[in-house]
Amino acid sequence: MSAAPYKQVLSKLWAEPKVWLITGVAGFIGSHLLETLLRLGQRVVGLDNFSTGYAHNLEDVHVSVGEAAWKRFNLIEGDISNLENCAAAVNGVEYVLHQAALGSVPRSISNPVATNRANIEGFLNMLVAAREAKVMRFIYASSSSTYGDHSELPKVEDRIGHLLSPYAVTKYANELYAEVFARTYGMTVIGLRYFNVFGERQDPNGAYAAVIPRWFGNLLRRENCVINGDGETSRDFSYIENIVQANLLATFVSGEGAAGEVYNIAGGTRTTLNKLYVLIRNSLSQVRPDLPHLSDFEPVHGPFRPGDVRHSQADIRKAARLLGYKPTHSVEQGLDEAASWYATHASDL
Question: Hey, what domains does the chain have and what are their CATH numbers?
Answer without folding.
Answer: 4-348 (3.40.50.720)
